[in-house]
Structures are given as structure tokens and as C-alpha cells.
Amino acid sequence: MARDYYGILGVEQGADAAELKRAYRRLARELHPDVNPDPAAQERFAEISTAYEVLTDPEKRRIVDLGGDPLDNGRGGGGGADPFSAFGFGDIMDAFFGGAAGGRGRGPRSRVQPGADALIRMQLTLEECSTGVQRELTVDTAVLCTECGGNGCAPGTSPHTCETCAGRGEIQSVQRSFLGQVVTSRPCPTCHGLGQVIPDPCRQCAGDGRVRSRRSVGVRIPAGVADGMRVRLAGQGEVGAGGGPAGDLYVEVEELPHEVFQREGSDLHVRLPLPMTAAALGATLPLPMLDGSSEEFHLEPGTQGGTLRTLRGKGMPRLRSTGRIDGHGDLVVHVEVTVPTKLDKEQTELLRQLAKLRGEEQPDLAQKNGHGLFGRLFR
């Protein structure tokens, strides 16, 4: 059975190009892998992308409207080979019924086409990702031609109906075969399927209806964004051929490494080097925060290297798919006890006295009670 491409996008069979695009974008905002990592959502995103590609292709859509599936490659539900697999389904229909006689002609395609999306990358520091920023970006995209307003014609002129195809956008040829009279259709070589020609093109855009231009666009990056996330600016992308509606502009975040903090999702990690004396005696230290402030950080006497301390709510803002902030992550402190590598004479003597007082002049790996790391080897 042919797939219901209209049902996949949730549109009616007569939906125009604008309705298809709106439906696709609505679903893509919910199912795109950058927004929804669920494997089921990724499969659904692939389905809607395929449906949109099929329905925006005039020939493939015509096959769908005739009850076929342009992606079946000539294989039906039973898995047997299609006897007409050597021909396109549309060519078979044209051969038996003819483009005009059967009422299934492609007709002229519109000169006005929707524009493509554009992508620009923006580098942000960890601090900027935490607070959000607002910037002016310089983008180079196709914009509407101001000379002709997008119609591609020189001022005071207009398109003419193509004389080769009489405005149909296609030409037909008739041949005789064992099947009888066969009528085939192909795009008009003069107007390229548009049904119209521009005798006097606009000098500024050469008849395309758009020109390249550099312009400034304001963008607001919300707090909590992470590396690889994208912010969408609707209608700020490439203007389509013939002055068609502009696509969207996506700003992709490139997060720069931080010299102190490491980020994992909404959590931050920081390494705290601690002298062995402070680890033994305990200490209260000013711990720097990402926003430039500091907080008192208390360490108990006897703190061991490798200790992890978690400060709740001191990490990055949690950004939801709706663009709203839902709390903050944590700050995880990794305590690293440092041992001095160089001691002067007085420091060495003091440490020897401490070792003597603690009975640690010669480390006892067995600890004589059998409870040491190597205790069982010395029994």
C-alpha cells in the first residue's frame, strides 16, 4: 500500500507549498534531533522529511495523487517486480492517456520558489552561554531585488506567455506504437517549464528576482545554550527565486573551552588543588564562581585527595525546549591534594619530626594487624 505522505505531514491533499512548509517546520521544531534525542522522534523526523521532499517535488507529488508511491522503486506490497518498473509511473500514465487528453498534465511550474535556510556559527564563552547575549550579526544572503520587486523584469515590462508551449510549461509529442497512439510530455525547453519568458530581464538581478547582499541581523541567544545548539530566526534566510518567501536563518552556538570550569550538560566541574597541610588540618577557602563572585568553601580536617563536593544549583541554567529556564545544574568540586616536590632543610626536619611523632618514619604496609593493603601477604 502506498504511504500516506499527506497524513504524515498532517495536511489535506490540496495543500499548497506554503501549507506544506508550515506543517513541516511545526513538526521539525518538535522532532529535530537537536531538540528531541528520543530515537522514536528521530525516526518520525526522517518520515516527515521524506514526506516533505516528496510533496514539494511536482512529479513525485503527481505520482502520490495518482495513488502511487514514488519511493517504492517499482515494488508493490507483495514484493513482486512491477512489470512497468523500466518506466516512470507518470510516463506510463502519459503514454496511455496523454498529458492533455487525460487531464493529468504537469502544467507550468511557478517562477516563485521558497528560499533556502541559511546557517551561521557564533562563538560564545562559557560565561556568555550562562547569561545569554544579544548581538548584531553580519550575514551575506540573497535578498529581494529592489529594482524589479522580485518579478525579474526590467521596470515597465512584464513576462510574456511562452510561444513554444503556449503557457502550458510542457510540450507533447505523438508517436504510434503497437499500443496505438502514444502521447508523451516533457518540460518546455524554451521556458524550462515556467510557461512564461522574460524578454527584458532586470539588469540588477538578471531576471532572478533576488540579489546577494550583506546586512546586519540582531539575535538574542538565551541563557543556558550549549555547544551545537541552534537559534532560529524565521524569515531571515535566503530569499527564493522569483522573489519567493525567505527561508530561515539558524545561528549555531560554538562554545569555547574555559580555563577553569568544565561543562557536562547543565553541571560544572572544577578542580581544587589543596596543599597536604590544608587537607590534614582543614581549611575555609574562597571558591570562585562562574559569574565572577566567590563563596566560602569549607573543608573538614583529614580531607582526602579525590574527594568530590557538590554545590547544588551553582551550575549552568537548564534550558528547556520551550526556551525557558528551569533551575540550574550543580557545581562539582574535585579536591586534589598536592604534595610538595621541593623542601628546604627546616621543612624537611619538621616533617621528619611529624613522622616520628606519628610512628610513620618507615611506612608499615602490613600495619602488623593484618588490616593494611598488603596485610594478608605478611601473615
Give the SSE layout.
Elements: H1 5-9, H2 17-31, H3 39-55, H4 58-65, H5 89-97, E1 118-124, H6 126-131, E2 133-144, E3 160-161, E4 170-177, E5 180-187, E6 196-197, E7 210-221, E8 230-233, E9 249-255, E10 262-264, E11 267-275, H7 276-281, E12 283-288, E13 294-299, E14 308-311, E15 317-319, E16 325-328, E17 331-338, H8 345-357
Parallel strand pairs: 1-9, 11-17
Antiparallel strand pairs: 2-7, 3-6, 4-5, 8-9, 10-11, 12-13, 14-17, 15-16
Helix pairs in contact: 2-3
The second-level CATH architecture of the largest domain is: Orthogonal Bundle
Number of strands: 17
The H-level CATH homologous superfamily of the largest domain, spelled out, is: DnaJ domain
CATH fold descriptor of the largest domain: Helix Hairpins
Radius of gyration: 35 Å
Largest sheet: 4 strands, mixed
Class of the largest domain in CATH?
Mainly Alpha
How much helicity do the residues have? Answer: 10-25%
Counted by DSSP, the helix tally is 8
Average pLDDT rating: 82
End-to-end C-alpha gap: 78 Å
Order of strands, main sheet, comes to: 10-11-17-14
User: Which parts are unreliable, with pLDDT below 50 for 5 consecutive residues or more?
Assistant: 74-105
Helix-and-strand structural type? alpha+beta
Question: What portion of residues belong to β-strands?
Answer: 25-35%
Shape: elongated
How would you spell out the order of helices and strands? HHHHHEHEEEEEEEEEEHEEEEEEH
